[in-house]
Amino acid sequence: xxxxxxxxxxxxxxxxxxxxxxxxxxxxxxxxxxxxxxxxxxxxxxxxxxxxxxxxxxxxxxxxxxxxxxxxxxxxxxxxxxxxxxxxxxxxxxxxxxxxxxxxxxxxxxxxxxxxxxxxxxxxxxxxxxxxxxxxxxxxxxxxxxxxxxxxxxxxxxxxxxxxxxxxxxxxxxxxxxxxxxxxxxxxxxxxxxxxxxxxxxxxxxxxxxxxxxxxxxxxxxxxxxxxxxxxxxxxxxxxxxxxxxxxxxxxxxxxxxxxxxxxxxxxxxxxxxxxxxxxxxxxxxxxxxxxxxxxxxxxxxxxxxxxxxxxxxxxxxxxxxxxxxxxxxxx
Amino acid sequence: xxxxxxxxxxxxxxxxxxxxxxxxxxxxxxxxxxxxxxxxxxxxxxxxxxxxxxxxxxxxxxxxxxxxxxxxxxxxxxxxxxxxxxxxxxxxxxxxxxxxxxxxxxxxxxxxxxxxxxxxxxxxxxxxxxxxxxxxxxxxxxxxxxxxxxxxxxxxxxxxxxxxxxxxxxxxxxxxxxxxxxxxxxxxxxxxxxxxxxxxxxxxxxxxxxxxxxxxxxxxxxxxxxxxxxxxxxxxxxxxxxxxxxxxxxxxxxxxxxxxxxxxxxxxxxxxxxxxxxxxxxxxxxxxxxxxxxxxxxxxxxxxxxxxxxxxxxxxxxxxxxxxxxxxxxxx
DNA sequence: TTGTAAGCGTTATCAC
DNA sequence: GTGATAACGCTTACAA
Lengths: 332, 332
Description:
Two copies of one chain form a homodimer.
Chain A: H1 7-14, H2 18-25, H3 33-46, H4 52-59, E1 64-69, H5 75-90, E2 94-99, H6 104-116, E3 121-124, H7 134-141, E4 146-149, E5 160-163, H8 165-178, E6 184-188, H9 194-210, E7 216-220, H10 224-237, E8 244-247, H11 250-262, E9 272-277, E10 290-293, H12 296-312, E11 319-322, E12 325-327
Chain A binds a DNA duplex (16 and 16 nucleotides) through helix 2 and helix 4.
């Protein structure tokens, strides 16, 4: 192993002091041009790179951002990470990606690791079971900025960036009504989740306002299998009386498709289908499924710029919302 | 901001030396039990955590592994990362995930970052356009162990872990023959890629050995769209004379499904379908698509154990292969 | 314009 | 058992 180059080695070689080398390398104004040239030349030759540990130790912080998500095997979080990665790289930061495996204990362990490594900032999507926010509060005491995204806490003292779920729900319902697709079977996810509650409220509010609440049937499915079952059962019980199905997520959408398939029903003639999605899965089917797009990528961009604002200091704690857009498809 | 606890603070508080505190905290045998107790108690109270920068600077390496992939938005790499993450965590390491955006320059930049941060080891899947291995060679000179996975270089001086592509191709062909599904339309990906070449060789070798080479039609699709086109065209040209379609990847499979759909053909009666996949997408359709599973997760486990071997020093450079398994589905 | 020296928080090698 | 002390590689007042 060729020993790595350090400031000291360069300074010894050139018979100048370490500090001069250090300054020359960072183009400090008051170092002689000739000296700079010599230093830089040798540094390049020796393939010198500053030792990040030493720099960080000295500066007391690293240029690493952390992203803590319940699961990275998730297209939405992926695109979020992708977006943050792009911006982070552009600003000279790198990203440390941590999974909580949807376990609050692992989540806490991840936070400890972040503190431990003095990361520059943390982006967090909570696990669905995170109960106490104590570990997060602790980050404030060590001045690590925190931005919650997607799965955010109720607590108002935190910075949050989230999907405008209520509006997304409204948007979906409006689309269905506009296309005259009542009566509709709406399948939501876990009823306990706030995301479900907000989307459902938006959806039903529109139906109520339009006076078509009686043409709306709601049910809940926690997994794709359950969505299959509901689809089959509701259509059989109600004698295929639904003009359309609304699905709250990709997973449910997949279930609905399987269900309709079992019933030998064709999209969009036998029934229309509209879902909420981050955008990958709906395009795989034929006809492509119409969806209201909640963009993880855009959320990432928004979160990052929020993080930068927070780090610059001139801002207040608040929650930002990201709007969704309609992507047409042959299923509606 | 509450100042963070350090060894010095604890030692001042207790009027003992820094070294004793350090030793007490790591249960060094020759420190008095009573002293240990007091130190640990105070440390817990002050919420002390060792400063990772200082430790790393001192020890000259960090306990962070890096994973460098072309794209993380890819189910295969996901499961790979998931597996490595699990093992790394268990061993007290953390993971730094870096994307190359399939750009050799970004890839090189990522490697520099790894060196710079003295990572404990690197797992790399090359971009499809990586030409020179110089940057990788450089890692050896600074003693950073390297394991290539999935997209590995031809160079034999590197450690590699990869899918047994040839065998996987064979396995697929054997399954198709066993189910009497000739003639078959086989759609592969980019013909330049070694992964394509190996899978294709395995596939055709079996057909040749079985004497059914004349019942095999091969074509190449770089994107899903192309696969749609090929599917439609080949079936129309050949008057639906194929008993089955073989697809080399998820993306192609999606294209084939759309194509068959356009042709109003039903699986598995009008045509059978077998694909190679990491396992997520094939289960979304109905009937579920039969596939030969190349497990990113298993590859991750294998890579990690390989990394550990390399780090322990008692091993030689070599390439490991991971076998695939058949997952039945209604499409075959 | 350049050099000296203190310190960042730890670990490790000596002494006592 | 415990305590000095010297690194690790870098930045940054403060001198010269």
